[in-house]
Design brief:
Layout: H1 2-8, H2 17-29, H3 38-52, H4 61-74, H5 82-94, H6 101-111, H7 128-139, H8 146-162, H9 167-176, H10 192-204, H11 211-221, H12 233-245, H13 250-253, H14 264-271, H15 281-288
Helix pairs in contact: 2-3, 3-5, 5-7, 7-9, 8-9, 8-10, 9-11, 10-11
Amino acid sequence: MARLEDVLGFGKHAWPLGAVRPLADTLLEVAEGRRRSARHEARWLNLAGYCLRPGYGAPLDDWRMTQLRRVYLAGLASPGDVQCQAEWFVLWQRVAGGLSAGQQRELFDREASRLGVGTGKAPRRLAPQLEREGLRLLASLEHLDAATRGRVGDHLLARLRREPRNASLLWALGRAGARWPVYGPLNTVVAPPRAEAWVAALAGACRQPSDEVVSTVVQLAARTGDPARDLDEGTTRHLHDTWLAAGVDARRLARLVEIEPPSEDDTARAIGERLPEGLTLADATARGA
């Protein structure tokens, strides 16, 4: 990675679209090279996902995702390696927006029971890294129907009752129940009553909310102007006023009472990282539509 940064003349986080997509093309050409060792596969998965994020938006991304699906169908070359399993989850989380609704459903069905989501049974014990990245992946599948996304959120909330400070679980809950999807259709947004129950549970568990709790609740309760998505206005206004009195920055709470589309920073938090330089969410959504 250090050599790539030297050659490109930028740190990894500043690599432009014109650099990452050609790198992705090369990685797809040599995908079989990941079989050389678990270390090769972990690096390939991580770099391929980074260079292909968010899975759509640039010319030829549909073709690239078709090539990447061949890797999905082949599965891991080192399935027993924990790092490879974690990077597998990270890869599909990063490019989830480039998967069709059917492909996302297949991915959910493949991984949800392993993570204990929707089964009613205790999941088998997984390494913390795998559980964290797996749940973040499921929360990122915005083409899943609203009821399924609701079950993901219910599972996350149950976990948060035991681990209220778990920032990764909070991030995933915010993504699963967001009022403003990153790329998904509006009819898959979790129903307001369910999101209201999640917000009440989070707000009731803390007098002084952490930054992570505030970010999650704002995602779950942001005003949109759409009655099918908005939570009860009295509820969100009361929460806004309560947290404002508790010292939370008014700018962070504004979307609870004002209709403001997510900013670039809001979107970066929702995705978990910034888009490649030169690709905006508006461009990506238009090209991916």
